[in-house]
Q: What sequence folds into this?
């Protein structure tokens, strides 16, 4: 299976809305063994000046990987998910993610590079919160590179 | 903790943390994150795609390692940027039914750089499994009061 080199520069528009719930923040925080009370306790979060529970720094991966799925599941892309290895990841937070946020993500394919029989694919998700005034506010930019291993790699 | 900017200096240790990981932790992380790639929970599948065995999600390791920074900063919202490269897999052996961890990840952090104008500290994390660094260039940028 070969990776389609024409993927570079492709974008996938914001699809479904991700509603950030308090229990999801608590569940994710437990899953990464986080203990900070601002993830679990509303009073503790508000004591730090936050409007609601604060998501852990890598929570945005849920939204980013949902956006990535549009690419990975795109039959035109030629990606075998079972051969995907995560190579690097970056989160830049324009503001924290809070419970109650309604988030959408736009996915951009920034790079496709052949490596051996496989390819390194770099994607960027621009994550926005929907605002009451039908607008959207930048929340996080996530960048990730995945290595799709060729046979024997 | 809540360090203030004036208290910080480059090279300062922020502490260490030891994280025991079990296969059940990986199943929990799969459920919480939505990443159900079977290489993180099914031995036969993992070895069938030429991996040495079930490995932790890179994002599990990245997410667990930053808790050292979050606790030091005193506010998870203070982490404004966080990046890493995944260089080695964390192989998690099956210890189901025992009290043992299937892998132990050792995390330590130091202040790598300070920006007085932005009032941010870059914390560099060393994340080690089985004597080898599994994350490279693991850096968290923290806003400090």
A:
């Amino acid at each position: 299976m070969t990776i389609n080199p024409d993927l570079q520069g492709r974008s996938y528009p914001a699809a479904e809305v991700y509603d950030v719930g308090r229990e999801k923040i608590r569940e994710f925080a437990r899953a990464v063994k986080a203990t900070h009370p601002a993830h679990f306790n509303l009073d503790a979060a508000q004591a730090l000046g936050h409007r609601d529970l604060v998501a852990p720094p890598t929570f945005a991966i849920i939204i980013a990987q949902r956006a990535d799925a549009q690419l990975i599941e795109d039959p035109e892309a030629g990606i075998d998910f079972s051969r995907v290895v995560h190579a690097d990841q970056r989160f830049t937070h324009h503001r924290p993610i809070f419970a109650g946020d309604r988030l959408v993500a736009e996915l951009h394919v920034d790079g496709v590079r052949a490596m051996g029989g496989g390819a390194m694919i770099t994607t960027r998700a621009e994550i926005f919160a929907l605002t009451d005034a039908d607008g959207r506010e930048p929340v996080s930019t996530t960048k990730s590179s995945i290595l799709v291993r060729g046979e024997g790699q | 903790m809540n360090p203030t900017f004036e208290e910080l200096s480059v090279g300062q240790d922020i502490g260490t943390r030891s994280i025991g990981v079990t296969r059940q932790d990986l199943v929990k992380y799969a459920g919480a994150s939505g990443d159900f790639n079977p290489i993180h929970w099914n031995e036969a599948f993992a070895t069938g795609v030429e991996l040495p065995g079930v490995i932790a999600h890179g994002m599990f390791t990245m997410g667990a390692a930053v808790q050292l920074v979050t606790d030091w900063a005193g506010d998870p919202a203070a982490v404004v940027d966080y990046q890493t490269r995944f260089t080695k897999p964390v192989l998690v052996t099956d210890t189901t039914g025992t009290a043992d961890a299937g892998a132990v990840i050792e995390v330590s952090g130091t202040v790598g750089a300070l920006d007085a104008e932005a009032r941010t500290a870059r914390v560099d994390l060393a994340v080690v499994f089985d004597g080898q660094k599994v994350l490279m260039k693991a850096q968290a940028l923290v806003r400090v009061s």
In short: The first helix of chain A runs from residue 22 to 31. The radius of gyration of chain A is 17 Å. The helical segments of chain A are 22-31, 42-47, 61-72.
